[in-house]
Write a structure and sequence with these properties.
Two copies of one chain form a homodimer. Chain A has seven helices and three strands. Chain A is α+β, with helices and mostly antiparallel strands. Chain A binds a DNA duplex through α3 and β2.
DNA sequence: AGGTGCATGTAAATAGTTACATGATTAA
DNA sequence: TTAATCATGTAACTATTTACATGCACCT
């Protein structure tokens, strides 16, 4: 399960609660990893049972209690082991491209909507990455990952800008 | 289920068996869609039950029989409807980038191996896309999708080439 | 009065992969 | 003889999302 490894990895950067891990992952790795509470909380429970993390309940004023997790030495080792042996795939899953493949079945309006929306999303991601990248305390590996995201997203936006007209005009003229 | 829509879409390009659909999808959409028999065959059965496809058993000499599916008018409508209303997300899921984020925990050899392997995979994809793109009978939408893949993959390879040294040398010196 | 953020968790549903089972033909 | 291609399918498993349940504090 990648979720467990991801939790260990997040905790290697500092102690955190499940809630905080989710936010952190979304912020820092959001452009290539998905997370949800439904996978994080069970993962943390399992890790605790396996002795890979420890947990301290922390009371807060004006906020609910939280469970702050931290890596044990065994957890730190497990993380290293996971990173050495887990798969290294880079996958794209795109309903966006899939739909565009069948542009000849769709009205130009729908095509334009899809393209515009996607460019917006890409640009939001780009803005976030820029904001994130001009901090200085960022480790080299994370800079690389963020820069990678920036590079391919920039290429994606440029490509759409230069070619979207072809797709839109290939749409299906007749409306129901 | 995206698999069903994908089957309908594949069949809109011509009648085919489950086996043929898988090959076709891998070839044409492989860089942004995954498929396996375990999802295709059940999907085709369901589609048949719903009356969205028809099926003819075809005997072949020197090969096993096959079940050739074709769209019914209802299936063609369903496809259009799916394409109009389904989600349009473009997602990247990358263990590759995830691992590199923690380069400081890994030996340079592992980092170099991962990077080299990924560049190779990208270049294989690029070769396939090139071969695929210089056909002439390809619909506009598919050209767009293939070109998109080409654009971001090229950017990815260039980025890795230009920045990999930083990551590798940020690796963990001490070996166990 | 209503929305957002903080915070944890579970259950059901969804989706999909992997491995297995079968078996003929053809090329190296 | 060994592997690959052709061909269909199921069952068990893995993983993950979605929706739900709860509840206080803060801002508008």
């Amino acid at each position: 399960m990648l979720t467990k490894t991801m939790c260990l990895a997040a905790l290697s950067l500092g102690d955190a609660s499940g809630y905080e891990i989710k936010k952190m992952v979304e912020e820092s790795f959001g452009h290539f990893l998905a997370v949800s509470y439904g996978s994080i909380y069970p993962a943390l429970s399992d890790l605790k049972e396996q002795g890979l993390v420890e947990c301290t309940e922390v009371s807060q004023e004006a906020k609910p209690d939280k469970k702050v997790y931290s890596l044990t030495p065994a957890g730190r080792e497990k993380l290293q082991d996971d990173l050495m042996h887990c798969r290294t795939e880079h996958k794209v899953r795109s309903e966006f491209l899939f739909i565009l493949c069948f542009s000849h079945l769709l009205p130009p309006e729908r095509l334009e909507e899809i393209l515009t929306l996607q460019v917006e999303k890409f640009e939001q991601g780009l803005a976030k990455a820029a904001h994130w990248l001009n901090r200085e305390d960022v480790p080299e590996g994370m800079k690389f990952a963020a820069g990678f995201g920036q590079a391919i997203t920039t290429a994606a936006v440029r490509y759409i800008r230069e070619h979207q007209q072809n797709v839109v005009s290939s749409g299906d003229g007749k409306e129901k």
